[in-house]
Amino acid sequence: MIVSLYQNNPRFGKVPDNLDQLLRAVGPHKFDLLVLPELFATGYLFADFNQAFLLSDEAGKGYLFESIRKLAAEKNSLIIYGFPERRGKRLFNSSIAVFPDGQYLLYQKSHLFDTEKEIFSPGESGFSAFSFRGARIGMMICFDWRFPEAARKLTLLGAQIICHPSNLVLPHCPDAMITRALENAVFTITANRIGEEKRPGLTLRFIGKSRIISPNGAILAQLDSEQTGFIAVDINPELADNKRVTANNDLLADRRPELY
Amino acid sequence: MIVSLYQNNPRFGKVPDNLDQLLRAVGPHKFDLLVLPELFATGYLFADFNQAFLLSDEAGKGYLFESIRKLAAEKNSLIIYGFPERRGKRLFNSSIAVFPDGQYLLYQKSHLFDTEKEIFSPGESGFSAFSFRGARIGMMICFDWRFPEAARKLTLLGAQIICHPSNLVLPHCPDAMITRALENAVFTITANRIGEEKRPGLTLRFIGKSRIISPNGAILAQLDSEQTGFIAVDINPELADNKRVTANNDLLADRRPELY
User: Fold this and answer.
1) Chain A interface test: which of B182, B184, B216, B252 (most A C-beta within 10 Å)
2) Is the complex ipTM more than 0.90?
3) Given pLDDT bands bounded at 50, 70 and 90, which one contains residue B254?
4) In terms of pTM, does the model score above 0.90?
């Protein structure tokens, strides 16, 4: 299974431009799974709720979804991307997994970071794992990494590949994802962005360093902090079914839930 | 509070020699807390249960405990060390925290590594946190690191400093402890050993790299893989009470237990 990610540098609020950037970047490539960053087409640093609301979409509707649905069909692949989700009068920081046939599954970010709390509601979807071409896939978003319960829950639900759309600004996550992969024996795909966004009194610099990591903690592919880019690796998701660290240790069977 | 560790290179089965090595190494130093490796005075690779049984002690009894009790009194410090604990006909891979007045608290390793399962019973003590000089301290042992639930449980119990006697042979733990510190905003003290042990068909090389890490993931002090050594740093344990990552994020308050 060819899994991939695109590390972008979106122009804030320019959804069609950012989509074009994506289409140009991934156009030449083949992949089964493509993971895109958190809020990849809108940008991150909304001035306020109203601005985010204007840039939001209902799940499974709108120009952004239709464009990705078309790409998923053309590429015959699963595409996961982050977007501001409108539901009634509320917004969620969500990711969506779009299948080649246009069906989709949604995840709403469980752990909101910093000023996101001024705009988004805490996710209500919870974590889930689903199947695609024989692989079991789960989603978490950016700051969810900081809570080991998120990746653990996805693993206990059977996820072999954790897809992790991100807009990272703190330096710790890329290395911490090695720990997340190791402690769960899963593949992780962290799709981050680069560049800078400003609003009065706040400048954010996004750190890039998107990574695909194997269940034994090896970095299979990575990007730096300076450039956009596409990376893809051919993996066997079933490697994540082997939770054995030694002949006598199984990472899930050895858990002691009665002590936690 | 001066917290410290000693990275040793024990001679298998030579408890008095290994104690002498320790006393020489820490003799010149002052510290409030000293963390020693897992099974630091006996060595690790027992040939079988009977050999381990002969080298074991009941908690709070025996030559090894009396020697450490004396050192804790002389140094007016808390000393944590790993030893094979005999309880009836069973053995546990345990650590003990010895107070200056000779009182002690016990922890039995929850997650046994590889061939340890042939010798030791899974720990029954569970995790706990206790107070010393105003700091709250917890213990876990070596392979417990691989299960994020261990350090998380200690943190939820109030531990500011996680003391982590180890005999590491795999390469991942020293870096993963940065994640453990970051995700819980606690100090971690991993006391490992160096050297090699053999028994027919099995050679283990211990990786050293003992580390003291701060709640923000900084390595405050560390040793390499080649030499024994003592390191100490002066810390303010209360820094671990600040679970705020940003003005809007608290690592414990932001947890979503209903989703895990």
Assistant:
1) B182
2) yes
3) very high
4) yes
